[in-house]
Write a structure and sequence with these properties.
Length: about 325
């Protein structure tokens, strides 16, 4: 099966601690890397997890709080020192360019590659980016600053050729692309060979939703319904519910409730407040509502699989 993995680089919240790095994840899909958020120290975490900078061409920033974007100047500079020449696109709220561009002009002057900014309207559910591997959509969230999550939907994999049948019908190489895409084959005599005789399924397209900093928001449920894997922030436990409401964050119970109502396959939680030193409590609280919950740790790699499959690696 084609790889679709989520690498956890940081799962802490705003206050730096020795237990957790600040928020960042990298999605590895079909050997392309897509970063979500870039907290301080992210580039070191990439080194530790042996993720190649050259394979990273798109970064998605959920909002402009420092623990989600302070790592960008260092990462961009390092890529320049490594001799990067291909462009890097940052998808983020429009204000990021005006904040980051002066830093790049000062610290990264003369780099051999271009940094492109693609502004996101965080109030809309819309297509942000698309390539041959994935379509990425914004998920409007409810935070104290403009903020959105991201929904990654894998492109439907091509069907697999049944080699014996391809050889039997002597299908030209030029026609194989169409057959993989699901088309029937018509012989020179005009006989139609059903695609089902020539191929078998390439697998079900998978999906991953990332819900960054947000108060409990049922408006997102229709947008993430039935996704295979959901990350939802869980900054607090339910005992700190007033603080969660004050700061527009969620509890583990909130995250689990969203997962249950959205009928997702698996839930992973993170963005833990520095006040806690036992993340097992988050998992326990969430599992009372949604059993398929896992609290993440830095260094974990989680495979996105079809619903109801085991995700831990």
């Amino acid at each position: 099966m084609i790889n679709f993995e989520v690498h956890i680089l940081g799962c802490g919240s705003a206050l730096p601690t020795t237990r957790h790095n600040q928020t960042s994840q990298v999605i590895d899909l079909r050997d392309k890397l897509y970063m979500i958020d870039c907290g301080e120290g992210t580039q070191l975490q990439m080194r530790k997890q042996k993720l190649k900078f050259a394979r990273l061409n798109h970064i998605f920033i959920s909002h402009l709080h420092g623990d989600h974007c302070f790592g960008l100047p260092g990462l961009i500079s390092t890529m320049g020192m490594l001799g990067r020449t291909s462009s890097l696109t940052i998808h983020a709220p429009k204000e990021l360019e005006s904040l980051l561009r002066p830093q790049l002009d000062y610290f990264c002057k003369g780099m051999a590659y271009e940094v492109i900014f693609n502004p996101i309207d965080t109030t809309q559910h819309a297509l942000v980016f698309q390539d041959k591997s994935v379509s990425v959509y914004s998920i409007p969230l409810n935070h104290h600053t403009p903020c959105c999550g991201f929904l990654f939907r894998e492109t439907q994999p091509d069907r697999h050729l049944i080699r014996d049948m391809i050889d039997f019908y002597k299908i030209p190489i030029a026609k194989l692309k169409d057959v993989r895409a699901g088309e029937d084959y018509i012989t020179e005599e005009g006989v139609t060979i059903p695609n089902s005789r020539l191929t078998h399924s390439g697998g079900v397209a998978r999906s991953y939703a990332y819900c960054s900093d947000t108060a409990y928001a049922e408006k997102i449920i229709p947008l993430i319904e039935n996704v295979d894997l959901l990350f939802h922030e869980s900054t607090f436990l339910e005992t700190e519910k007033p603080r969660a409401k004050e700061t527009a964050h969620s509890t583990a119970k909130d995250a689990a409730t969203i997962a249950l109502k959205a009928s997702v396959g698996q839930l992973i939680i993170g963005h833990f407040s520095a006040r806690y030193d036992n993340e097992a409590l988050f998992e326990e609280e969430a599992q009372r509502i949604f059993i398929h919950t896992h609290s993440v740790r830095e260094g974990e790699t989680i495979t996105v699989q079809s619903k109801n499959a085991d995700i831990h690696s």
